[in-house]
Amino acid sequence: MGSASSAELSPALERTLGDAIMEQGRRDPTYISDPDVNQYLTDMGRQLVEHAPSATGQHISVFAIKDAQINAFALPGGYIGINSGLVVSARSESELASVVAHEIGHVVQRHIARGMTQRSQSSGVMMAALAGALLAALAGSGDLAMGVAAFGQAAAIDRQLGFSRQAEQEADRSGFEMMRHAGYDPRGMVRMFEQLGNASRLNEGMGDGGYASTHPLSIQRMSDIQNRVREVATAPRRDADDFWYIRAKLRVAQARDSQALRNAIDKLQLDAQRATGVEQSAAWYGLAYAAWQRKDYAGAGRALNSAREGGRDSAQLASLTISLALDQGEAVRARELADAAWQRWPDSQGIALARAEALQKTGQDQQAVAFLTQLIAQWPELPRLHQLQAQSYERLTNRVDARRSMATYYELTGALPTAVEVLQQARSMSKDFYVQSELDVRIRMLKERLKADRALLERFKS
């Protein structure tokens, strides 16, 4: 394959590196594993990339991290990180989509892969440090610092790549077309540019590492997009309700201390009083979510009732209502609510997980296993499903299948050495020759994957 610095990364190699970063990055404390948030962002990303002409078969996965700063970054292999602050600052779904589309533009134009293989000395040092951190994790370290190293250093490399003015304009134009054809209002890109420019000026001289500093906003870029907006027919877009509920949840989730949480609650209370329609409902949902986190279950219930005024409802409201019932010891009611919600929102990962937990809490582990098997066929890469299935198998005294499911959970969350250990435990528990043979094959495949990942990372480390 040649050295990493002398040839462009192949798409397969880039994806392997991205997978390695994400496997450890999911252990970063700032990584948001909330199913509602990640499903919403990834669905947006995949909807946009469908309209990128040069992205045939391009894998896109968008995730969120807890950080109030307005920023986003792309990793190798089609992974895009969105700071919670970017979602909260967006005043419309199209504004948020403009940044996601721009990042996808960098991915499909292969700016990241080219930048990594033509990197500066400083980004090369960072790449070597990242590879070293990932190698330590593959050696079996359970330290959460490995996750911090993975995301922190990968984002630093993204900053060091310093995309050229031409690359930024290519990503703008590609993103603009994706937005337009996906049905978003392309004027959202202009509005987001204006907001990012204002934020950059406010933070000038403060060492700010926000989006405008990593993707410099030139007058030329702004003028180019403004001209393109004038040349195409545009129509206002009604924001999806999910945007407002996810935005409210992230306003609360990103608060790192009591003062930040107080500020978030104050803003939500103001919106609950002044806003109308879904924006008002979402503000009440955010207040309910904040109360639920503080274990103020009565307050959460009152806020949820206010969020539903006027007949409004959403998968997010239903999911929080189920969680509230479970935390108050009302397992049977939670199961009834979950059954009804699943009938209404069969594509919601949040509802699916809530229903699985309600089945378990009511002692229906056999039904939970069957339901989780159905969900895993639908969303095979959602780690929590495999973890819940392992728990039900264990209670049903099916110890071998419990460990097989748990091994998948560890594999999906990046703990490959632990996955191998758990599979070896399962093999020692079984006397069935065919089961042992199946486990042997899986253990061998995981060991080969570990070996290949180590070889790839050693290449970048050197």
From TrEMBL:
GO terms for molecular function: metal ion binding; metalloendopeptidase activity. Keywords: Hydrolase, Metal-binding, Metalloprotease, Protease, Zinc. This is Peptidase. It comes from the Bacteria. Residues 38-228 form the Peptidase M48 domain. The keyword Hydrolase applies. PANTHER family: METALLOENDOPEPTIDASE OMA1, METALLOENDOPEPTIDASE OMA1, MITOCHONDRIAL. One of its GO terms (cellular component) is membrane. Its cofactor is Zn(2+). GO terms for biological process: proteolysis involved in protein catabolic process. It holds the Pfam family TPR_19. It comes from Pollutimonas thiosulfatoxidans. InterPro entries: Mito/Outer_Membr_Metalloprot, Peptidase_M48, TPR-like_helical_dom_sf.
